[in-house]
Design goal:
Six copies of one chain form a homohexamer. The first copy, chain A, has about 120 residues and is an all-alpha fold. Chain A is about 75% helix and about 0% strand.
Chain lengths: ~120, ~120, ~120, ~120, ~120, ~120
């Protein structure tokens, strides 16, 4: 699926470019980003939904896309996903709707890409 | 006009997809969204401008596009539109300018699409 | 009413302090701020409501307070005010509610202060 | 504990005031707000953490306070709470830290208030 | 380089369109925008980095692009640029990362466009 | 000066409380926060102003207070400070003004506290 490949390709290419700049602060932020979603007192599934909803209310499409893929990998099903996003919609208001549209579209693209 | 058709097409298709998910919270948010812009103590024209400026300062291009179409349908003329948007620009700062550019572009596309 | 006097007193004192710093950019922003809400193709009443709703969705209590006073001075009645703020609530989500509470409280304080 | 009582008192008093204004849009937003956190495909515990983290990254202290109380009522323990908030901190950045300080302070106040 | 030309072309065309609308408030905001980055107690280099980081934490790609070009024109080198952006990343959190990716991509495009 | 002591006291007390929770993600964010403002290709003075303006446009009073103290310690004088903040005001709009008022007030408190 082009949408998924394009996003993941750009993401990986630019992360490589950024980390090769040698900036230590940026490198550490990337590292703590990984740590934040690792298993602990809360399981990964919950943490990925927390990341998704935080991204949704802050209205970052790319962050939403990333967490949608991770949510799918962790076995979160559509009914759970929409419930999680509905919390974000209520908290963040109708300004979130365009991002919800793109999220639903990408969620479908993720499933189409493995068909 | 392609810009208008593309936006409205995606919007309608994804709203249908989202509502068919059956999530009741999302459905109710869509419903209250309609209610908020209906006639009351303030007329629709004013409410649409309120929605436009709220969308502009929150910097949501899709929301701005939607309210631009509605403002046009309600008979708001260009001088009024730019005055409304100028309030958003002053409150929201120069960070709003790129969204103002896309708003002006879409406003022109809306007029070109009916020519 | 203490709440009104305290807010207006601090606002005026600090605006004076800031403008006396002699920074020309800041001075011009203050000046364009006044211009934005002056009479034009849209009347002042509408512009004040635009400023109010922009402030509400950006969740700035002090800005909301300022526009509440101006809305009251322009003769906006409670039913209109709540309709305007309800647009902000729908666009901005439940995150706006705490600001709506403080807005309602200040609206009442404004009326009590003239009793 | 004064901090808890003051917050809850103001919240309840102003919600009553706002709902008595008779605005139907506002009333429905309050209603869908309750629905969003009810049991479903995700349990209440998870939804409350989603609400907490959404509130934290949007940096609304009052919303954070509300969800902290609900998280405590749902039996979320401190280690889980800080893990949830750490996701919000990573996503939202150090700008979140002052809100994290107030959250930790209120979390302690909630426990002190029942001692 | 297409990315640079496309952005600059649209920016200039729409700024012309907007200013021709004759709205005085908008005109003055554009004017104070220029003044803010002029030489003073702080040199232009520092001011452009301030504008860049402000744009980055507010997550406005177009504003970031503009300031990247200006930073390059002022002789800011890559190590300085990434240090400035790393401050924005820490303050603004991982939600900034997608904008950092697009910034790094545009920075490279700016250099490729003059090769 | 009470304002300065109160802020710094609460900040230090709660940072201690938060770090004692033992959450590793939070601990690392605090650590990278320190690293971001250390000497490098840009000097500390510039980095503190970047942190100040980022905090101002994101409208976090506590973050602004922290960077004001650091700016003062680094020898930034009032004219430079207001120029830096004026960039934030232009980018962020009049919604920034209430935070500018509190910033000016705290800047004066910082100077009064050492008199």
């Amino acid at each position: 699926m082009t949408a998924v490949k394009d996003f993941e390709g750009f993401r990986q290419r630019m992360d490589k470019r950024i980390l090769e700049s040698g900036n230590k602060v940026i490198k550490r932020v990337y590292s703590v980003d990984n740590l934040a979603y690792s298993d602990g007192a809360l399981d990964i599934k919950v943490k990925e939904m927390l990341g998704l909803v935080a991204s949704l209310v802050l209205r970052c499409d790319d962050c939403v896309k990333y967490h949608l893929r991770r949510c799918k990998e962790e076995g979160i099903v559509e009914e759970q996903l929409f419930e999680a996003m509905s919390v974000g919609l209520v908290v963040g208001g109708t300004i979130v709707i365009p991002h919800l549209r793109r999220a639903a579209d990408y969620w479908d693209a993720l499933h189409a890409s493995e068909a």
